[in-house]
Amino acid sequence: MSDMMYFDHAATTPVHPRVLEAMTPYLTQVFGNPSSVHGFGREARKALEQARDQIAAFMDADPQSLIFTGSGTEADNLAIIGGAMAQRERGRHIITSQIEHHAVLHACEYLEQEGFEVTYLPVDETGSVRLADLKEAVRPDTVLVSIMYGNNEVGTIQPIEEIGTFLREKGILFHTDAVQAFGVLPIRVRQLPVDMLSVSAHKINGPKGVGALYLAKKVPIEPILHGGSQERKRRAGTENLAGIVGFAEATKVTEEEMDDRVSKYKRMKEEMQAVWKEAGIAYQVNGHPEMVMPHVFNVSFVGVHTETMLMNLDLVHIAASSGSACTSGSLELSHVLKAMHLEDSVSHSAIRFSFGITNTVDEARRAAEAVAKIVQRLVKRA
């Protein structure tokens, strides 16, 4: 697949060579269980806590507030199900938005089966949650709110600080799924009014199968996995040590390169649009014009169906997506675009390009030229 241009980094990213190098000793030599008391275990424990310190420093968190999980999905489930269950005597009302990742939406649907009520907030045409809608939805029995930091399909950044400040005043727990924003936006949890925040390694050139949940002090949570007393009895199961070490190295690399990456991604968006303007093809950028993550670029080419465009791009070795990888196997319209109430012609022709470390500005230009040719050919035929 070396000749393939990969523009689907929001789905997953390649493991950085430095990450692989950092992980290797923990797959071969330092294989002890971090919970074991002998020398092998102590060596593993030391590496685990060093990695925790590194990841916590990257997000400006107390290391003891970080719980390692098997994925961003598990971190979301632990926050939402664990946070709701720990407070069920106080109230059984939860608020989220209609454009959350399925890890959040399906966790909320599960809680509905367990007797909770969930309000799914609408968004405007840019994919933004309105603070006024949230204020109106809050009830005396509201115990938890989960609003994502940045949307994985259109890139819109939500007003997390305003939402969190309001919820602090009300004494309501606030969780944000920051899986897609982590590593492209500066996240400093000590300065954010959030109680819980989910992240994942494989979105920042770390390995798959490891995530983390930031859990502020004194936030009540009920474990959703039952077994050993790992992670301060909040997440049972032997820690994925090699994965966690890789996660820590990925945050180091990201910290060193983040500014350069972000400016490159912005140039790529500009370059692609310049090509399309010059080619004279019709396109529409979806999401918020300013409050948007630099690496996510959702564009509609009206008159060319999403699946048709993706197949044509694949034929010329360009990998893009229709949005969330979790629903890309089906022809169903994206729930995010549906919630934004875009014209059918716009939502049925949307493509997500998402940038990462393997991409260059020249690649972006060539991909945009390929798109322009496909659009011109298919629109002419229609």
TrEMBL record:
SUPFAM superfamilies named among the record's database cross-references: PLP-dependent transferases
Enzyme Commission numbers on file: 2.8.1.7
Reaction catalysed by this enzyme: (sulfur carrier)-H + L-cysteine = (sulfur carrier)-SH + L-alanine
The keyword Coiled coil is assigned to this record: no
Annotated Gene3D superfamilies: 1.10.260.50, Aspartate Aminotransferase, domain 1, Type I PLP-dependent aspartate aminotransferase-like (Major domain)
Protein name as annotated: cysteine desulfurase
Keywords per UniProt: 2Fe-2S, Iron, Iron-sulfur, Metal-binding, Pyridoxal phosphate, Transferase
One annotated GO molecular function: 2 iron, 2 sulfur cluster binding
Cofactor(s) it depends on: pyridoxal 5'-phosphate
PROSITE patterns for the chain: AA_TRANSFER_CLASS_5 (PS00595)
Family in the record: Belongs to the class-V pyridoxal-phosphate-dependent aminotransferase family. NifS/IscS subfamily.
Pfam family of the protein (one): Aminotran_5
Aminotransferase class V domain location: 5-364
